[in-house]
Amino acid sequence: MKHIKNLIIGCDWGTSFFRLRVIDSSTNSVLAELTSEDGIAKTNKKVEKESDRFGLFCEVISENLDALKTKVDFEIDSLTIVLSGMASSSIGMKELPYGHLPFGVRDAFGLDVEVFENNASFPNPLILISGLRDKHDVMRGEEVQLLGLAHLMEFSKEEETIIILPGTHSKHCFVKNGVLNHFQTYLTGELYQILSEYSILSNSVTKETLKAWTPKASEAFSKGVLDAKDSSMLVNLFKVRTNFLFSEMDKPENALYLSGLLIGEELGNISLPSDSRPIILCGGENMNVLYKKAVEALGIESRTQFVADDILIKSTIAGQSEVFKIHNKKLND
Amino acid sequence: MKHIKNLIIGCDWGTSFFRLRVIDSSTNSVLAELTSEDGIAKTNKKVEKESDRFGLFCEVISENLDALKTKVDFEIDSLTIVLSGMASSSIGMKELPYGHLPFGVRDAFGLDVEVFENNASFPNPLILISGLRDKHDVMRGEEVQLLGLAHLMEFSKEEETIIILPGTHSKHCFVKNGVLNHFQTYLTGELYQILSEYSILSNSVTKETLKAWTPKASEAFSKGVLDAKDSSMLVNLFKVRTNFLFSEMDKPENALYLSGLLIGEELGNISLPSDSRPIILCGGENMNVLYKKAVEALGIESRTQFVADDILIKSTIAGQSEVFKIHNKKLND
């Protein structure tokens, strides 16, 4: 079997998914990829004694590596595995304490990793990456995305840049001169989900995904974004009920109104007229549609750059490559 | 059997409870009372054809009246039943359209009722009270409480008074010169419930009710109230997670912190230093404890009057009496 230089295995381990990629760290190209449903939560449930934890997680990696081997015609047994995401959390393979800010998004200053040498039972060296904490906040996984993004695109050199990673727990990351000084988590996505599923509002919205952006749908979403500025969210939420009671919106429009309210609330603090900081919005295909409309409604298009899906996916890959290269450089220094 | 003058039957029909009271409308004293679990939601589920709706709800009233009769030694068959709450909603006995503001809290101006004469199958006349709507808001039941409160206590004659009825959907009612001009619903209680049960925060708070207010518990609650002023609620909520992750609060303290965040957010708009309007807080025994602490943390004690449990219970009774008297007066005019 042939050997290829500079290869690593990137492992992106989320709460509900598991992903392995063979990455050429010199170009960030992906030579093979495998995803499975062996997420952290599912794997954590299999742990019976805490002493077995690390070994059991290694077994799950091994099983997936075996599946990955069938997809390549070169040796991967000795490649270093770089693990990001929830693997270093309290329900992961080994809990690592959060690194503290400031964090260097180009040089990974402040990032904590733990390295596990290969041994008889597990032939690959492992680099387990920890998350970061702010005074009132935490992230695990996004720090690797930031590292990747900083290598894939240019951030403003003069001004603080706000990098937004939307999702269940949307992250706002404040970066200046290559340094992450502060970040905040918004419960936007999760609140949308529990409100539309478990609250009184569930009768006023639809759970189906939108098929087409009609003018009325756009209008409903934008109205939500702008209404968020007028009152407390606790009051605005009840409007989702009266929109429907008063037949002002149908359920699909009202679902967009609710989504607009929450995204408008999330973007409220950074859309003041006095704010000129550039915004990089990393929503991917689905989220960017919504955030683009919100940004338009708030009139902050000129400050905002949207990151395309391919760059967003590549950010984790590039971040894992960077961690590997920085680690290697340290070893050789 | 003896007859007593001025008697009515007050029916307070909520989503999940049913309550009948024999009331002396001249004194608002209660001569007999009965509660059952025949709430609107449960009764609504029994409706098979829409044409049966009214009759089926009457049957439920009749069954409960029969139980009430065993508790009294006087005739109640001809007494007028005054129905408030959800009985006039779309899932109630007959949907009545919401009345529009302004609403007279002393003379019931603007209140819509429908009167059903007694007949062979149902011996009691019925007065079914509808709710009220504002531009973006609705209430059913609180309008009768307001009517009762206005007769049980004095509201400010000069300034607009803010009457707060806390709960799952907390109502802020703005009354001036005996007229309700505006009201707003805050999703405070419901959001607390779904966040502590279904969100990621459920692992960071306890569901048990507080046994004692330790100094640390008070501090946690007040911190939540004050933090609500600093950031968006979407950001503040994630602090409930980090409070626990960073061992800054235990689960009971953190539950109070979450409660403080939400109540602080609810009271935010009316606790500005420039605001001098009197506040009447109708929390009852459980809620007043929390709202009192919030009011103290916000420094608005001097503007706020707390309504005791007995007055709060009496407000519905007095309100139903008023509706009866106003209706009678109209008949006799």
Automatic annotation (TrEMBL), chains A, B:
<dbReference type="InterPro" id="IPR042258">
    <property type="entry name" value="DGOK_N"/>
</dbReference>
<dbReference type="InterPro" id="IPR042257">
    <property type="entry name" value="DGOK_C"/>
</dbReference>
<protein>
    <submittedName>
        <fullName>2-keto-3-deoxy-galactonokinase</fullName>
    </submittedName>
</protein>
<dbReference type="Pfam" id="PF05035">
    <property type="entry name" value="DGOK"/>
</dbReference>
<dbReference type="GO" id="GO:0008671">
    <property type="term" value="F:2-dehydro-3-deoxygalactonokinase activity"/>
</dbReference>
<dbReference type="InterPro" id="IPR007729">
    <property type="entry name" value="DGOK"/>
</dbReference>
<keyword id="KW-0418">Kinase</keyword>
<keyword id="KW-0808">Transferase</keyword>
<dbReference type="GO" id="GO:0034194">
    <property type="term" value="P:D-galactonate catabolic process"/>
</dbReference>
